[in-house]
Design a protein that fits this description.
The complex is a heterodimer of chains A (274) and B (255). With 274 residues, chain A is α/β, with parallel strands linked by helices. Chain A has eleven helices and ten strands. Chain B has two domains: 21-140 and 225-254, no CATH class; 145-213, no CATH class. Chain B has helices spanning 15-18, 21-36, 41-58, 62-76, 79-86, 102-126, 131-140, 145-174, 183-213, 230-254, and strands at residues 91-95, 98-101. The chains are: A alpha/beta (274), B mainly alpha (255). The interface between A and B is medium-sized, with 30 and 25 residues. The complex binds adenosine-5'-diphosphate and magnesium ion.
């Protein structure tokens, strides 16, 4: 076993008394992609802030086998890239290029390496021609991708994304989804807090259901069919799966629950053939 | 964009634009100080001519500069009208018992001329390089790190704050709010401003987190490496000559 992220008994209470995390335990294998699902206020963002030491609660957090403590923080922040929900919070330099170079320069890379990482990160997110632009003047979709580039340029082993598709139009959502797929193929461990359950099957092998503590953690296809559990948390089952769960409950469909359009088409063909 | 973008024409090509920003800022600021210290009207007018010439050389559009300096100008123009009334001296003309003094008029004109000359120079100094380059140059001239960062972030987030302010006013207007001076409308405005304040406070916290998570430890990394050449020094010497020349003339005239 070689976990990228290991969390043991993590609890956190905000200064105003709100208990945001209450004994969270889980561990994520290297190279896997996990979706973090939970209703508003479930503590998703709070949990993510713990994973690179921006918040310190009670309990243990281990990154790539090393325990997080004061002395390991700089190392941890080099391994774990955290992309926040609001891109305007992360694009604070006067030009996109300087923003993307901010992390690598803090790591003390040589200007040559900084240049290589910056142009690579901008290429991955499809913003190569925009390097000199003021981040403020980018479109919202471009800002979201730019924020991702500012973290990718540090080449983190572990990538943590907080709502990367929120407020995006369908095309930009599609771009983010294929980007996550691309990074996963490169072996990056990815944890994504996400609202839109319909996207989860496309980006994650596993689902972590959170409601101040871990409610469920398992393979995407096993967790996302638990309609009662999801509804109880105020979450939806993906639209396609929802339909076929009803068909299965009604005895019209015996097979595996489909999650993608293609799977649904062949499942429909089975039903028609019967 | 608006007057907030003092660097809106920093992409132009001119001898001022090509000047090493550090040398440019230092020597033009020196010229500004020299002009502001002048006492003779004739020499101050010469200083104004130098400023105008430097502005011309910088090729910054006149209408754009005028747009930016019109408020300071409005503030400077009344000097020649007010000072004759308040400065003692030989009255050259009496109206309703108020004496207009010649010394006052001259002092007022000197103040106005020096002020206009200094304001005109702001644009060649700060408008001929991208704002962040200017700030980095000022840092390498000894501007403290904290001030450098405050300038950079203020510039970046001014736009955002303005948008948030505009969206708050739109949201008030769309719900039928009309700005007035009665207690109720001041209460609403106060609440809206308070909300804006809290929002920007929370935003600053999130920005700080984003910076720390990317390895920020107090210093902003910068790649701006300035290169000084003979030409930069030559320009600096010319401007230095102008600054000293003005002081010399002033000394000869006033004594
Ligand atoms: N800075 C804060 N101060 C106090 N309470 C907070 C703060 N940030 C979040 N909370 C509270 O902590 C809980 C978890 O919030 P969060 O982690 O943002 O949830 P999620 O990201 O899942 O929507 C919520 O009840 C929220 O109101
Ligand atoms: Mg959140």
């Amino acid at each position: 076993m070689n976990p990228a992220i290991e969390v043991v008994g993590l609890s956190y209470r905000y200064p105003d008394g709100t208990v945001a995390l209450d004994g969270v335990d889980f561990s994520i294998e290297r190279g896997s992609s996990v979706a973090l699902l939970g209703p508003n206020g479930a503590g998703k963002s709070t949990l993510l802030l713990h994973l690179n030491g921006l918040l310190r609660g009670e309990g243990i957090v281990r990154i790539l086998g090393r325990e997080m403590e004061e002395a390991t923080l700089p190392w941890v922040r080099r391994q774990v890239g955290l992309v926040f929900q609001d891109p305007d919070d992360q694009l604070f330099m006067p030009s996109l290029e300087e923003d993307v170079a901010f992390g690598p320069r803090n790591l003390g890379l040589s200007e040559r390496e900084v240049e290589v990482n910056v142009s690579w990160a901008l290429k991955v997110v499809g913003l190569t021609g925009m390097a000199g632009r003021c981040p403020h003047h980018l479109s919202f979709g471009q800002k979201k991708r730019a924020a991702l580039a500012t973290v990718l340029s540090m080449r983190p082993e572990v990538l943590i994304l907080d709502e990367p598709t929120s407020n995006l139009d369908p095309r930009s959502k599609g771009e983010v989804i294929s980007l996550i797929g691309e990074l996963k193929r490169r072996g990056t461990t990815i944890l994504t807090a996400i609202h839109d359950v319909n996207i989860v099957p496309a980006i994650a092998d596993q689902v972590l259901l959170l409601d101040r503590k871990v409610v469920e953690f398992g393979p995407t296809r096993e967790v996302l069919v638990k309609r009662g559990l999801l509804k109880g948390l105020g979450l939806d089952v993906p639209a396609i799966a929802d339909l076929f769960i009803s068909l299965k409950d009604g005895g019209q469909y015996p097979g595996e629950i489909p999650f993608t359009r293609d799977e649904a088409l062949s499942a429909l063909a089975q039903i028609v053939d019967r | 964009m608006s007057h907030l973008e003092i660097d809106g024409y920093s992409h132009l090509a001119s001898p001022i634009h090509r000047w090493d920003p550090r040398v440019k800022i230092a020597s033009l600021l020196l010229l500004t100080f020299s002009i502001v210290l002048l006492k003779s009207l004739a020499v101050a007018l010469l200083g104004l001519a130098f400023s105008a010439a430097i502005l011309l050389i910088s090729r910054l559009p006149f209408s754009y500069v005028l747009q930016g300096i019109k408020w300071p100008l409005l503030f400077l123009l009344p000097f020649p009208l007010i000072l004759p009334l308040t400065v003692d001296g030989e009255s050259f003309f009496i109206l309703y018992g108020l004496g207009f003094s010649i010394e006052g008029l001259e002092q007022g004109l000197v103040m106005m001329t020096r002020g206009v000359a200094a304001v005109v120079l702001i644009y060649p100094i700060f408008g001929s390089s991208p704002f962040n380059t200017t700030v980095h140059a000022m840092r390498s001239l000894g501007l403290p790190e904290a001030l450098t960062q405050i300038f950079l972030f203020a510039y970046r987030y001014l736009f955002l704050l303005r948008e948030e302010f505009a969206s708050a006013s739109r949201s008030l207007a769309s719900r039928g709010f009309i700005k007035g001076t009665d207690a109720a409308s001041i209460r609403v405005l106060g609440a809206a401003l308070g909300m804006l304040f809290i929002r920007s406070y929370e935003r600053s916290e999130r920005i700080y987190r984003a910076m720390v998570s990317k390895g920020y430890g107090g210093d902003l990394p910068s790649a701006d490496r300035f290169r000084m050449e003979g030409r930069d020094l030559l320009k600096a010497l010319i401007v230095l000559g102008l600054a000293l020349g003005l002081q010399g003339l002033d000394w000869m005239v006033i004594g």
